[in-house]
Amino acid sequence: MILLQISAASGPRECALAVAKTLGRLLYEARTCAVNVDVVELVPGDVGGTFLSALLTLDGEAAPKLARRWCGTVRWICASPFRPHHGRKNWFVGIAAHAEPPPAEMSEVRFEACRASGPGGQHVNKTDSAIRATHLATGISVKVQAQRSQHANKRLAMLLIEQKLAETASQAAEVQRAVRRQFHRDVERGNAGRVFRGENFEPVR
Questions:
Q1: Number of domains comprising the chain
Q2: pLDDT confidence of 65, banded at 50, 70, 90?
Q3: Is this model's pTM higher than 0.90 or not?
Q4: Distance of CA 146 to CAs 9, 19, 37, 99, 120, Å?
């Protein structure tokens, strides 16, 4: 399993929109090559439908190849949909793969089924598919409702717990945090591996 991060870094809201478009395109490509993608965490931007960052897991035989294809800088060539008279037409996001954190002991985590909330209509309101996981030793708690089954949400909850433990438990995690913070700040511009054009996000290369 590969942990993949898409980030707008310190870019403006156009870059946050590019993150959302990149996510959509990546999900499409994943379906075509039978790679299972779980969206573990989304950080919304200040405009609906935009994201400052997205954290995903990729699983499947073709997952490493897909990750390599996307890692690096993505360039989106498009006039700003938010600032019609703005002269800039190049927007950048960064994509990086991160090592999976060390697994937490299952005995240290308490799982509780709970009602899913948010969009989804009556189906969401009537099912107890969401999972709240609490790491007993640290009190770290996460709620996951991305999937319809408790089993899938439990798996993602464990991944989030492991990620948060890795970020807080050791000097190695501090290094990992520093790398990810730097990644958010510094997206390499002018050397994009993937290039897309227009509001439909059509691939150029």
A1: 2
A2: very high
A3: no
A4: 24, 19, 11, 22, 11
> With contact defined as beta carbons under 8 Å apart, do 197 and 74 qualify?
no
| Distances in whole angstroms, Cα of residue 127 to Cα of each of 130, 131, 147, 189 | 8, 11, 12, 45
Q: Residues 6 or more apart from 202 whose CB is under 8 A from it?
A: 196
Element (H, E) at 2: strand 2-7
Name the DSSP letter for residue 116.
Answer: -
Contact 18, 45 (CB under 8 A): no
Pairing of strands 90-98, 2-7: antiparallel
Is a pLDDT exceeding 50 seen at residue 98?
yes
> Residue 143 corresponds to which tokens in the numbers above?
């709620």
Q: Has residue 123 got a pLDDT over 70?
A: no
| Over residues 139-148, mean pLDDT | 82
Return the CATH number at 111: 3.30.160.20
Can you read off the two tokens belonging to residue 17?
């929109």
Task: Assess whether 147 and 89 both reside in one domain.
Answer: no
Q: Which residue has the tokens 């709970």?
A: 114
- Give yes or no: residues 85 and 8 share one domain: yes
- CA 81/CA 139 separation, integer angstroms: 42
